[in-house]
Amino acid sequence: MNLGWWWRLFAGALAGFLFFHGFAATETAPNYSFMYDATSASTLSYYDYIIVGGGTAGCPLAATLSQNATVLLLERGGSPYGNPNITKMASFGAALSDLSRSSPSQRFISEDGVINARARVLGGGSCINAGFYTRASDEYIKQAGWDGRLVNESYQWVEKSVAFEPSLGQWQSAVRDGLLEAGVMPSNGFTYDHIYGTKVGGTIFDQQGNRHTAADLLEHANPSGLTVFLHASVHKILFAIKGKRRPKAHGVVFRDATGAKHKAYLKQGSKNEIIISAGALGSPQLLMLSGVGPAQHLKSHDITVVLDQPLVGQGMSDNPMNAVFIPSPLPVEVSLIQVVGITHFGSYIEAASGENFAGGASSSPAVEYMNNLDETTFRGGFILEKVMGPISTGHLELRTRNPNDNPSVTFNYFKDPQDLQRCVQGIQTIEKIIESKAFFRFRYEFLSWPILLNMTANAPLNFLPKHYNPSMPLEVFCKDTVMTIWHYHGGCQVGKVVDLDYKVLGVDALRVIDGSTFNDSPGTNPQATVMMLGRYVGVKILSERLAN
C-alpha cells in the first residue's frame, strides 16, 4: 500500500480545510441606507451611543439601540456583501487564506504556536465561521445571571433572521449514528438546545447554501437612528477626568482608510454610553490603548494611565480542538458542522466533510503537499473534538500602540490536566465512531486507527514541536496536534473587568458587550449566544433609558 500518497492527500486536505475556512453570505446585499465608508465621516460628530465593533454582538446591539436613540457603529473591516469570496457554502475555503489587508480575516499566531484568526468585517466571526447555530445550556444562562425569559426572546429574535435546520447527507448521518453507537446518548433529533446526547443543530446557511450573518440583523435597525461607518479603525476611547469623581468615557478617535482622523462624542445625557464590542482580542486591546489596564504594562508603551486595572487582558482562553481526517472510499457531501455529540465528560464531538477543502489555501504550511493533488483526492471528512470550558487560561498584552496590529496572546492550552483528560476521552470517542457499523463504509479498512492518528500527528497543523508516535499515549497526541476552533474568549470578564450589566468597573459611561466578557465558551459553539447577548443587553439598556 502506498501510504505516501495517503499522507499527501491527508496533509493537503487537513491544511486546506482547517486553516482556511472561507465564508459566504446572502448574495443580494440589503440596501442599508445608513452604511457608509468612514472616509465620508465628518471630523466631529455626536451620538447617544457609540459602538466599537460591528461584529457578532455589535450588529444586533446597534439594531436594537437604534429603535429609540442615535447610534454610531464603527467597524474596522468592510461589508460582507458583494465580496467574490462571500458567496456559497460550497466555496468554503478562501477567507482565512487571504492575508491581504482587505481580508475579512486577520491571522494571528498565539504565543502557544497555534495559528488563529480574528474577524475584520461587518458581521464579525459569523462571516468566517463554520455556521453552526446552537444555544447555551440552561445552567450556563443561570450562572451568567441572565433573565431566562428575555434570553429566550432574544435567541428567537436572532433565529428568525439567521438560523435554519440543515439537510443531513449520508456522511453526516453516519457520524450521527456513529456517535449513538459510541454511547453519546440519547438521540435528541434537531434542536437548538444544549442537551446531553447527540443532536442535529442549527446552521446560519440556508437551504440554498447562502450564509446569513450578524450583519443581516441590521435589517431590524431604525435607519434614521443608525449610522454605520466601515473601514473605521478606533484608536482610543476618550475620557473626561477633570472635575469627575472617576473617569467618564465621552468620545472616540477613529481613522478612516486614508489615515484621516475623526472624533465622535456622546451627546449630553446621563444615559448615553460608549460600548466596546470588538471581540476577545480587540476589546481588551482597545481598553489598554485607551489607558485602562495594567499600569506598568501601559507605561512601558508610553500610554497615559486612566485607570490601573490589572485584570484587563487576563483570563484569555481558547477551547482546544483536535481532529482526525478520515479518507473515504465513497464520495461524500460537502458539509460543515451539523451534528454534535455533547458528552458527560466535557468534550464536544463535531464533523465536516467535502471533496475539496483546499480552495484558496495558497498560504498553507502544507501547500507543498497540495501542489499536484487532484481535487477528487480530497475525499473524506474530519471528526473533531472540542474541550468544553476550558479551565486553562492565559493573558493578552499589547505589542504596539497601533490598534490594527495584533496583540500578543497566550492561551496555555492543556495547562490544566482536566482539559487534557477531556481531549483524550474525546479522541477515544472519535475512534469508536470510526470503528462503528454506521461509519464503516466511509473508511478504508487498511487505514487503521494508529495510521490515521499518525497521519494527523505528522501534519503541519501548528508551530509546536512534534513528539507523537503510535506507541505514545493520547495525551501527547492532544498536545502535539492542538488547533483552534476559533472560540477564544476572555480578557474583559464579568466580575473582573465589567459588572453584571457589562459596565466597565472603575469608569463611567463605558460597557463591553461581546465574548471577551465570557469565563467559559457558551454551548458547543458560541455565535448564537454572542448574537443573543447583543440583542439581550440592547433591550435592557433601552428599557432603562425609557424608564426615566
UniProtKB/TrEMBL annotation:
Pfam families: GMC_oxred_C, GMC_oxred_N. FAD binds at residues 121, 234, 486-487, 515, 526-527. Its cofactor is FAD. Keywords: Disulfide bond, FAD, Flavoprotein, Signal. Residues 1-25 form the signal peptide. One of its GO terms (molecular function) is oxidoreductase activity, acting on CH-OH group of donors. Residues 279-293 form the Glucose-methanol-choline oxidoreductase N-terminal domain. Disulfide bonds join 423-478. Belongs to the GMC oxidoreductase family. This is Glucose-methanol-choline oxidoreductase N-terminal domain-containing protein.
